[in-house]
Amino acid sequence: xxxxxxxxxxxxxxxVPALAQDKPADTNMQIxxxxxxxxxxxxxxxxxxxxxxxxxxxxxxxxxxxKELQAIxxxxxxxxxxxxxxxxxxxxxxxxxxxxxxEALAIDQDELTLRKTYAAxxxxxxxxxxxxxxxxxxxxxxxxxxxxxxxxxxxxP
Length: 157
Hints:
Helices cover 83% and strands 0% of the residues.
């Protein structure tokens, strides 16, 4: 349980890209990101109980999903940073609020589409119970990340 909590907190911290950083900070951030990805994979592995044949099918699909999920995380981070910038400058206009809202909704839709796509890829390759378990694990991690992000993002004034 402690490992899951640590992974969730680190993932939440990494969901928003770092602002201007110098080279050592970039290197440290990459090391942390690599560690978090490895820890998340350990959490998934510990909870999936895959046999060898299932693992050979699952892990390449997992890695592809994580790669596509990273693109969604980067979009989320950019949207949050755009909001934070406007919020801090007290420059949030109706047009910008509409644009940011539309992007946030598009990100949500794209993430749902991604989950459906990868669930479909896993169905038939793994028992349905294990597919459901994996989707549940991902959903729990994503919910915790969203909660952590939400606590740090003030409401629109």
